[in-house]
Amino acid sequence: MTVNQDDMLEFHWLMDMLETVEVGLIVLDSEFRVHVWNGFMENHSGVTASRIKERDLFAFFPDLPETWLRRKVKSVRMLKTRAFTTWEQRPYLFHFRNTRPITGTAPYMYQNLTISPLTSTDGEVRMVCLMVYDVTDVAAGNMALEQANEQLLRLSETDRLTGLLNRGTWENLLKADYERCRRYGSDSVLVMFDIDHFKAVNDTHGHVAGDDVIRRTSEVLLSNLRHADLAGRYGGEEFAIVLPETTVSGAVAMCERIRKVIAATPVDTGTAQINYTISLGVAPMSKDIETPTQWIERADAALYQAKEGGRNQTCVTDVPSRAQ
């Protein structure tokens, strides 16, 4: 076999590899005319190499991020070095349909992109090569893992029955709000409340019905909160709320809304209508509260006063707020 035949065979193998490799290969000149368009690009775009060769890339794909791509290619040509883009930075360059059987639910093909300078014999960069990698499996796997981690985080921070913050998470946020108030002199109000005669509900209707009552209470609570408010299940039938940047009158108004809705709306368990009420204790932040625990104790004392006063009411501790 002659040298020329060896060269031709090598060239044939190279061209066959470029056509069958599972990477999109595009060679562009300085005017963004296409000179190489391999089989991967043909299969996923539906545009044959014969149609697009010597044609403007953006004329065939008007939805490409033209300004961004021109800027990236210009940088590669000037610096004579590669540039990389991952799917996390830009999900795709070409909006191709996802054809992966395992990740068929992905909305499109996620892509990594490499832009490489092609240096001529005189050292000038007259062409650049775009390499498009299908990373849909990796992207879908990473996103599924992130979703699972987010779900685990939510489960670790929330109470399963009510969806409210669990006690540990709520106490950590209470400490943070306490420190904020101490540092900046902000107003904040702590509310502790529980369900009146809850043991009788369990004894009369059963624990499943008791869970229904707790869930209904948390639903009413959540529907009356602002985004910044922090509500948690403190334990059993006890609930706790931190109301940042709130006056005592504003906190009492909110408590009364919740109390009246609960008193007026029985829980339907399917076998019985359960009427119940709640009692609430309100404690504004004040200068003499030295720890978050003391703040809770103040709210508990107000709650005890509401219980002693006949239940189904809101009581406020007699300590004035900062604004007062």
Automatic annotation (TrEMBL):
Keywords of this entry: Kinase, Transferase
SMART domains listed in its UniProt record: GGDEF
Domain GGDEF stretches: 186-319
Reactions performed catalytically: 2 GTP = 3',3'-c-di-GMP + 2 diphosphate
InterPro entries: Diguanylate_Cyclase (IPR050469), GGDEF_dom (IPR000160), Nucleotide_cyclase (IPR029787), PAS-like_dom_sf (IPR035965), PAS_4 (IPR013656), Rev_trsase/Diguanyl_cyclase (IPR043128)
Matching NCBIfam families: GGDEF
Protein name according to UniProt: diguanylate cyclase
